[in-house]
Amino acid sequence: MQFNYIANTSQPSSSGQTIAMLDPSDGQPYDEIQRSNAADIDAAVGAARQAFSVWSKLGAAERGRLLMRLSLKINAHAQELTAIEQRDCGKPTKQARADASALARYFEFYAGACDKLHGETIPYLDGYSVLTWREPHGVTGHIVPWNYPMQIFGRSVGGALAAGNVCVVKPAEDACLSLIRVAQLAAEVGFPPGVINIVTGYGHEVGDALARHPGIDHISFTGSPTVGTLIQQVAAQRHCPVTLELGGKSPQIVFADADLDAAIPAIVNAIVQNSGQTCSAGSRLLVQQSIYEPLLKRLGQAFENLRVGPATLDLDLGPLIRQSQQQRVWDFLSDAQVANIAMVAQGKVVDEAPETGFYQAPTLLRDVPVTHRLAQDEVFGPVLCAMSFRDEDHAVELANATQFGLVAGLWTADGGRQFRAARRLRSGQVFINNYGAGGGVELPFGGVKSSGHGREKGFEALYGFTTLKTVAIRHG
Ligand code: NAD
For a Cys staple, 389 with which of 262, 337, 360, 395, CB 3.0–4.6 Å? Predict the structure, then answer.
């Protein structure tokens, strides 16, 4: 049984109710979390408010030291955290391990950033000095999805703490055990009570209560566009600032002059990583006509070699998170059949995969019409939709033809085209001849259009987690 973690203590929900946690690899319950409610959020916000006076007086260098201690502690517990995340989310070992090291790296990065967040002095009227202070919002609320709990906690909570805020975190009901453990580790390395609080439960209950709570001074939401809209509406009623990190339908644009040996593994990885349950999944493949057939042939071979199975087998893909997510992918694929969209190739679910697990073979579809929902909506599963383009203008037009704007991958050797196209692509990130290599902890990340607004990751995140105060002094 897992408990909320408020003011450095494990606490049951006042509801007295729990939610069963299922292992996506076999669909069986293996633990329980608290089904929290508004009263629990109130307790967490109260603890955080008390902690804010302590945390904000610590000094930036001391905050940085604590963040660094947590980073080291996470590294020391990487195996344990990997195992927790693997079972909770159904991640292959290499993915869960990468997520644990990314979490440590976020705290390392933000540890070093704490005492480098400066204000400015501004030339003004004679006899005046004007300066700006970057001040923390206070108590920040963080609503986290299930696809990368540790990574999203690291980038969001790491940045908020570095900027001097204290945090109330609502992880996803499907996967949250690693975050409860990280909060305990933070207490062990000396984080004052109330600086990191974790309250578990359903989104429409405890997530909604968090977004509405008048003691929350900023909301960082990572999740679906639908819920992002609800959060922003609720927050608008009390003018609470919001950062929204939402979904994507990111294009991989391959020109005839691209280095295909470099592009193919990156294209495959961008859609099968985490079984396609990645906001930045490269889920649309736009290929110049002259190389469309040969590229699909090579990709088809790569897809046929992909294997899906239980998380601990550490294959190319693990299961999807839950049955409803599996059903969602099936619905998209049966829509493809109805629309006569042809399948190029599919990977295989291995025999060892229990029938009760939530498996889906990776699938490559071709000639997907740009207006079809497979080319427009987020599947959030391992389904890659290919279509061809004539020239640069056509490629940019297709790439921009969805409601989303998170990432675009651009594969071309032509330097002029790299810059021209990158300028015209409506997305928060453009990766040229790579696709998200290296994790990008240092790189600002976020979307435009329905992919959200505001930036997390990198130093840029610290601006969003602070508010600017201008101080004008007349000194004669
Ligand atoms: P979701 O929106 O259903 O849930 C996200 C979180 O919001 C969960 O913690 C959930 O409990 C909570 N929630 C649900 N309803 C709520 C409500 N009414 N009020 C407050 N909170 C509520 O999304 P999901 O299915 O967990 O995650 C998948 C989505 O997240 C995809 O669209 C994906 O692209 C997106 N995502 C985006 C990024 C990014 O950085 N842009 C990163 C990861 C995931």
Answer: 395
